[in-house]
């Protein structure tokens, strides 16, 4: 509660800070609380007027600018803002009058001349508008909205749009801007997008956009229908096929997704991001051999490298093996994303290494609290989301990056085309994608001996394999609750669980899990990462075809991190998927005391969970065959006391494992960088190696 001038000063400071950060609603409340105590406080009146004007509540702003000016007429900014607001409100005679008063009071200079010119211009525009019947706001208002959006003043734009769309309900672009403004704030934009679609129903792009909005809200089934509608209107719409592939994949229909991606590529063979989507999807398919998967990745490399390879630059970096290394990391996921759980603990230590200079190339427009946490750990932060692939490659060359690290592979937002231009002497892929990039421009791939034992998987990679002590450390969430008692001891039945994405639950996975569930008739299966109702019906149907009724399935939708972690209190053992394993989910589960039963795979994509179990000395949860998977699941259901002991000790085991040794892994990563650089300085080709072999 405001009681004295000190309270006013403190509240005003808070309000201004909130306003500048874009939180207009909270700032407005604080400013009004000041004026409730002191109606003449000039700064509170001025900032409230500015806030209202920015959010296009122009008429409401006038009284506050007037009050500020009357309380402190010595402030030129109060005069200028009040006159500008009067012009925006079309109070032209009042604006002229206040301008003349200002001139008499000594107001002068370029800003005053600008206002005089603006007044003449707006009056002229008003005369032209009066003769037309318009259903859209004036051009200057539209321009202000666009500027608010570009300057990321999203709350101000949203407030302004609510008022304008009441006045102009048939304004198509307004509904589009509203939808974009809500989307970027992670708000529900379906109503705005639906309004835009109703005004432009014959436009295929409008249907596609509506589908993207529905997808963002998790309404996958209706999103798919919207993309199909777009294709009906425009049969050669490659982006619509690509988006239909994405939602089909997200609903678990991998075969359909692959078909849609291929249709998009038939229409537009140069659609590199769609090809990445296809590769990502094929890596989840249980009917694609490792040989065919590698061949498809190579085709990507052949197709998209060909136009650049002859123009690869001859890097002029100094061949000094002891030089300070410029190391760049390229990712779309320097934000709240599973990648950060593995990358940040390494970054924490790398940032302290004196002879390594870290550069971040952030390729996403999205920044959040995680982004702000990561930024200070890099010496150089480059936001490059608006750069083309060519421009990004050129920037990397200009920055003289010695070693360039791809953290995305073929996941969403990747910039592999920039890597295809070979902007750095040494390029490597790590963490984001558990397969080859398919690029000959990529020199190395980082892993560990559990993931890729020496000489066993080299034929699946264009890159040379470098083995760290562990592929990466893992940061458990601060929201993790304590490990609870094994649920089966109280339930009287065992509960299996899976928190992997729905597209990883392939028909072969459902078949194998069903065999296990049928062997233990009272067992249940918790699926903890399902999309919204209606988007996973195919999975329920598939289980039913294997005589697993829906009452044995415990379904939870994707939820908050805290709720997701608490669900592990209901699970005795997690079941892994194949050919694409869970990695982040396996780590979270282990931290929560829940081991993961998995099959040792024949590709990197199918060895992630196994590697984690072996790092935790839990080889009893790794099997060689599907038959072994069923028999081992039955074994654990019959040895609950042993399983309970595993649960109670697992967090402790995690803490002492390589998965929790960020410092050691970071040291080995620096050693790996040095080994790579020494070979380049000696004009030696890239080769596979293990970092322990170069310890000193």
From TrEMBL:
Pathway: Protein modification; protein glycosylation. SMART domains: TPR (SM00028). One of its GO terms (molecular function) is protein O-acetylglucosaminyltransferase activity. Residues 306-470, 489-663 form the O-GlcNAc transferase C-terminal domain. It comes from the Bacteria. InterPro entries: Glycosyltr_41/O-GlcNAc_trsf, OGT/SEC/SPY_C, TPR-like_helical_dom_sf, TPR_rpt. Its EC number is 2.4.1.255. The keyword Repeat applies. It holds the Pfam family Glyco_transf_41. Belongs to the glycosyltransferase 41 family. O-GlcNAc transferase subfamily. This is protein O-GlcNAc transferase. It comes from Methylotenera mobilis.
């Amino acid at each position: 509660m405001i009681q004295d001038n000190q309270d006013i000063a403190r509240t005003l400071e808070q309000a201004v800070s909130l306003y500048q950060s874009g939180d207009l609603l909270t700032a407005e409340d604080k400013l009004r609380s000041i004026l409730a105590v002191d109606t003449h406080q000039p700064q509170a009146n001025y900032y409230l007027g500015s806030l209202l004007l920015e959010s296009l509540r122009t008429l409401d702003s006038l009284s506050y600018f007037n009050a500020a000016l009357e309380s402190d007429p010595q402030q030129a900014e109060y005069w200028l803002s009040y006159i500008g607001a009067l012009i925006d409100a079309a109070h032209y005679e009042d604006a002229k009058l206040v301008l003349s008063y200002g001139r008499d009071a000594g107001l002068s200079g370029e800003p005053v001349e600008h206002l005089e010119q603006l007044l003449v211009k707006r009056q002229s525009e008003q005369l032209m508008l009066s003769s037309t019947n318009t259903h859209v706001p004036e051009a200057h208002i539209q321009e202000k909205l666009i500027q608010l959006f570009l300057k990321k003043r999203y709350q101000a734009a949203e407030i302004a749009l609510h008022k304008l769309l009441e006045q102009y309900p048939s304004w198509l672009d307004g509904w589009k801007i509203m939808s974009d403004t809500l989307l970027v704030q992670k708000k529900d934009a379906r109503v705005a997008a639906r309004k835009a679609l109703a005004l432009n129903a014959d436009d295929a792009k409008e249907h596609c956009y509506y589908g993207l909005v529905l997808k963002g809200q998790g309404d996958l089934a209706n999103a798919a229908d919207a993309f199909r509608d777009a294709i009906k209107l425009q049969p050669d719409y490659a982006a619509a096929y690509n988006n239909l592939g994405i939602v089909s994949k997200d609903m678990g229909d991998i075969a359909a997704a692959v078909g849609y991606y291929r249709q998009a590529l038939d229409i537009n063979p140069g659609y590199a991001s769609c090809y990445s989507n296809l590769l990502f999807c094929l890596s989840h398919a249980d009917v694609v051999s490792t040989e065919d998967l590698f061949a498809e990745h190579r085709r990507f490399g052949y197709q998209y490298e060909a136009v650049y390879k002859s123009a690869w630059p001859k890097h002029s970096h100094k061949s000094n093996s002891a030089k300070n290394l410029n190391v760049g990391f390229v990712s779309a996921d320097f934000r709240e994303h599973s990648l950060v759980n593995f990358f940040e603990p390494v970054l924490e230590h790398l940032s302290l290494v004196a002879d390594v200079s870290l550069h971040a190339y952030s390729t996403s427009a999205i920044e959040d609290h995680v982004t702000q946490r990561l930024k200070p750990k890099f010496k150089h932060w480059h936001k490059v989301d608006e750069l083309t692939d060519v421009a990004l490659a050129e920037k990397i060359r200009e920055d003289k990056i010695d070693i360039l690290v791809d953290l995305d592979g073929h996941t969403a937002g990747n910039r592999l085309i920039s890597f295809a231009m070979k902007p750095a002497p040494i390029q490597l892929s790590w963490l984001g994608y558990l397969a080859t990039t398919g690029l000959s421009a990529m020199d190395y791939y980082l892993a560990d001996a559990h993931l890729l034992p020496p000489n066993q998987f080299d034929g699946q990679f264009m890159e040379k394999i470098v083995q760290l002590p562990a592929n990466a450390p893992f940061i458990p969430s601060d929201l993790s609750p304590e490990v609870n008692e094994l649920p089966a001891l109280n339930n009287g039945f065992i509960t299996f669980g899976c928190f992997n994405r729905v597209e990883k639950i392939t028909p072969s996975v459902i078949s194998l899990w069903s065999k296990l569930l049928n062997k233990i008739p009272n067992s249940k299966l918790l699926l903890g990462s399902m999309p919204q109702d209606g988007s996973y019906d195919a999975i329920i149907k598939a289980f039913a075809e294997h005589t697993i009724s829906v009452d044995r399935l415990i379904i939870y939708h994707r939820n908050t991190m805290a709720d997701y972690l608490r669900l592990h209190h209901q699970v005795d053992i997690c079941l892994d998927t194949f050919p694409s394993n869970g990695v982040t989910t396996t780590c979270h589960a282990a931290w929560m005391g829940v081991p993961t039963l998995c099959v040792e795979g024949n590709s990197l994509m199918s060895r992630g969970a196994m590697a984690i179990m072996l790092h935790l000395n839990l080889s009893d949860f790794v099997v060689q065959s599907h038959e072994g998977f069923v028999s081992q699941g039955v074994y654990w259901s019959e040895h609950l006391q042993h399983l309970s002991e595993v649960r109670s000790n697992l967090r402790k085991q995690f803490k002492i494992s390589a998965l929790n040794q960020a410092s050691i892994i970071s040291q080995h990563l620096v050693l790996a960088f040095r080994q790579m650089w020494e070979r380049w300085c000696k004009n030696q080709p890239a080769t596979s190696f293990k970092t322990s072999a170069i310890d000193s």
